[in-house]
Design brief:
alpha+beta; four-stranded antiparallel β-sheet; two-stranded antiparallel ribbon; 6 helices; 13% strand
Length: 214
C-alpha cells in the first residue's frame, strides 16, 4: 500500500507540470485538445468540419489500463465495509465514495496522460492528412505524406537522441515533419543532420538529451 501511495504522490506532482493555455489553440488534452495548425485555405467552416471529424475519431480511442484494478478493488471493499461497520452517516459515506473515485483516477494518471497523448497525435495526424500543418511542438505528427515516404528513410541512421533532435528542429520551425539522420556520435554526444523545408539542412548536437544547433 505504501508503494501505491508513493506512486500516486509522484503522479500528482507530475500533474502540476502542465504549461498549456487555459483557452484557445493549444489548450485542453486528449480528445478535448484544441490543435495549433496552419490551414491550407482560409475556410473556417471547412476547418470546423474537419476538426469535428478528427476529434470524433480521436475520442473513439479507448482508455485501457487495469494493472491496479485488483488492489483498488480490495481497497474499495475494505473502506466501504469499514464505513458500514462503523455506521458512517449517508453524507459522509458519499464523501468517502467520492474520495475513492478521485483516488482511483490519480492512480492511473500516467496511463491517462499516455492515452491523451495518443488521442492528440491521432487528431493532428487526421488533420495532416487533410493538408493542415501542425505547429504545436508538444504534439507529435507521425503521418507522412505518400510523396515523402522514400525507401531510404527506413535505412537512415538513428541514435539515442534522434527524437530529441527532431523535436528541437520542429521547435525551430525547420520542418513540420523533421527526419533526423545521425552523422556522428561520441562519448555522451550525438550530431544529427535534418533537412528543412527551406532546402537547407539544420545541424543539431545533443549531449545527454540536451540538443542545440551546431
Amino acid at each position: 500500500m505504501n508503494r501505491l501511495l508513493s506512486f500516486v504522490c509522484i503522479a500528482t506532482l507530475l500533474a502540476g507540470c502542465a504549461t498549456r493555455p487555459n483557452h484557445g489553440p493549444g489548450s485542453g488534452s486528449g480528445a478535448d485538445y484544441v490543435p495549433v495548425v496552419q490551414a491550407p485555405t482560409n475556410d473556417p467552416a471547412a476547418y470546423d468540419a474537419d476538426l469535428a471529424r478528427c476529434r470524433a475519431s480521436a475520442a473513439s480511442i479507448p482508455f485501457r489500463a487495469s494493472q491496479h484494478d485488483d488492489a483498488l478493488f480490495v481497497l474499495d471493499t475494505g473502506v466501504v465495509g469499514a464505513g458500514w461497520m462503523a455506521g458512517i452517516p449517508t453524507i459522509s459515506g458519499v464523501a468517502v465514495v467520492g474520495g475513492l473515485y478521485a483516488f482511483q483516477r490519480a492512480v492511473y494518471t500516467p496511463e491517462r496522460r499516455a492515452w491523451h497523448a495518443k488521442q492528440e497525435s491521432a487528431m493532428v495526424n487526421c488533420l495532416a492528412q487533410r493538408g493542415y500543418v501542425n505547429q504545436d511542438p508538444s504534439v507529435r505528427v507521425t503521418w507522412v505524406p505518400p510523396g515523402q515516404r522514400r525507401a531510404e528513410t527506413a535505412l537512415r541512421v538513428t541514435g539515442v537522441d534522434t527524437y530529441n533532435a527532431e523535436q528541437f528542429a520542429k521547435a525551430r520551425r525547420c520542418s513540420a515533419l523533421p527526419m533526423a539522420t545521425l552523422i556522428e556520435k561520441g562519448p555522451g554526444y550525438e550530431r544529427h543532420s535534418i533537412p528543412c523545408s527551406n532546402g537547407q539542412a539544420l545541424a543539431v548536437r545533443c549531449e545527454f538529451g540536451n540538443c542545440r544547433a551546431g
